[in-house]
Amino acid sequence: MADYRLIRSARRTLSLEVTPEGEVIVRAPQRLSAADIQRFVTSKRGWIAKHLEKPRRLMPEATPLEEAALKDRAREMLPALVARYAGQLQVTPRYVKITSAKKRFGSCNGKGGLCFSWRLMRYPLPAIEYVVAHEVAHLKQLNHSPAFYRVLASLMPDHRQRAQMLKNTPA
Ligand SMILES: [Zn+2]
After folding, report:
1. How far, in Å, is the centroid of ligand 1 from the Cα of 65?
2. What is the Å distance from ligand 1's center to 32 Cα?
């Protein structure tokens, strides 16, 4: 069973999300018991597994030529996008690195470094912008708390639709 992050709030129902980074987030009402939450997660095991697999299954290997072109585009475009969103939040990343990660399009570490996979460049621009905004928002909140999502929404009110687009686009 995959690990998941539990976010309790004033909501009435349970919900489940798999982020583009491959993180499972369960949202639950404040007083629901841990056993009920675990039962819900267990009942959704198949759905979670399918969504965790998806980015890998849809991602055929790029040819060396394609890879070189995508890396060039990543180096051109991503630091500029980072600068745009970081400027809006008045934060400064320690560094921006382009990686070849297969499962994670983007990540943010505790030292304030941002990493993006060149494989992200195969996706539509709104999805690319979403991943960048998501990671830049982590410079303010290094978690997926409601406070994090407020920061993200301030950069990108339609971030949920964009996250969905990222999930649904075959590469
Ligand atoms: Zn995140």
Report:
1. 30
2. 25
Give the pLDDT of residue 92. Answer: 96
Q: How far is the CA of 68 from the centre of ligand 1 (A)?
A: 27
Residue 64 Cα to ligand 1 middle (Å)? 29
Q: How confident is the model at residue 91 (pLDDT cuts 50, 70, 90)?
A: very high
Task: Tell me if residue 147 falls in helix, strand or coil.
Answer: helix
Residue with tokens 């990686």: 99
- 149 plus 70 within the same structural domain: yes
**160/125 same-domain check:** yes
Structural domain boundaries, residue 20:
5-57
Q: What is the rounded average pLDDT of the residues 26-32?
A: 93
134 alpha carbon to ligand 1 midpoint, in Å?
6
Angle 83-84-85 (CA atoms, 0-180°, nearest 5)? 95
Question: How many angstroms is it from 108 CA to the middle of ligand 1?
Answer: 8
Is the alpha carbon torsion for 151, 101, 117, 103 positive or negative? negative
Specify the number of domains making up the chain: 2
Report pTM. 0.68
Mean pLDDT of 96-125: 92
CA of 60 to the centre of ligand 1 (A): 24
> What secondary structure letter does DSSP report for 30?
T
Same domain, 112 and 40: no
- Based on the domain organization, do 92 and 137 belong to the same domain? yes
